[in-house]
Amino acid sequence: MAQPILVTVDGAVLDPDVPILHADDLAAVRGDGIFETLLVRDGRARVVDLHLQRLSRSAKALDLPAPDEEKWADAIATGARVWAEANGNAEGLMRLVYSRGRESAPVDAAPPRDRDETGLTREANAATEYLTVGPVAERAAKVRENGVKVITAPRGYSVDLAAVAPWQLLGAKTLSYATNMAALRYAAEQGADDVIYTSSEGYVLESPRSTVIAVEGKRLITPPPEIGILSGTTQQALFAQAEKDGWETEVHALRPADLICAESVWLVSSITLATRVIELNGYSMTTPARPHDFSALVDRAIG
């Protein structure tokens, strides 16, 4: 049985069975924080720089102090090393957690002088910052090999919402994931494995856990982050590698009909990596002649 790992941002390795959160931590009571999920493979966390860059962007969106990327990088290396020492070459799911801290003494990006009315000084407040490493769920290996059945589902907002309502935090990876989990349960009730969200205009957005990629020959297409979706780390690494290998990459709006007409459609993410959509809204998707070419490209992309 895999041994889970718990490491603070300062690099302290703690007993994973001992509680680390206070009862009033804003991560628990309001989902007021951010996270990242990294794959640990062969004793090394993958695509670390892109994850830390996104962590910093998410922190800025939530008015959290900028994460210390150097400290986080050291903690990530420690977590991956300790995981490998305990579990060998087994793949691990590493999750970085950064919350605003305790409700009784929250931390934010405002200077102390702007917070005098609270009676709290910056020194009295601290963010909650730690990472965990645990086993990758069996589902990941299954969907990598077998693909997924997907339905589209309306997300309920326009592609313009991110620009006019930044407080919706549409491009941030926040801890508030209840809606995404509900969407996945809804998909399961419909006999599907996953969801692709659509905007009120009918454009393709993203999956609760993945970025959508359409493939046409040697051309990769994904929706633009500006329409209110998370900028995918695996997608960014994939496009960079694809361009080196002679593929064309495009970022533009897609509709569900574009996916059905594509040579293949994939959901890419940090843990499942590349999962082919084998059915969309009840339509059986075509099987590309060499489906493993795309999976191999993703493997090269993450190093």
From TrEMBL:
Protein source organism: Williamsia marianensis
Gene3D superfamilies: 3.30.470.10, D-amino Acid Aminotransferase, subunit A, domain 2 (3.20.10.10)
GO molecular function: 4-amino-4-deoxychorismate lyase activity
InterPro entries according to UniProt: Aminotrans_IV, Aminotransferase-like, BCAT-like_C, BCAT-like_N, Class-IV_PLP-Dep_Aminotrnsfr
PANTHER family on file: AMINO-ACID AMINOTRANSFERASE, AMINODEOXYCHORISMATE LYASE
Signal peptide coordinates: none
Coiled-coil zones: none
GO cellular component terms listed in the entry, alphabetical order: cytosol
UniProt keywords, alphabetically: Lyase
UniProt EC number: 4.1.3.38
Family, per entry: Belongs to the class-IV pyridoxal-phosphate-dependent aminotransferase family.
Pfam families in the record: Aminotran_4
Protein name: 4-amino-4-deoxychorismate lyase
BP GO annotations: carboxylic acid biosynthetic process
Top EC class of this enzyme: lyase
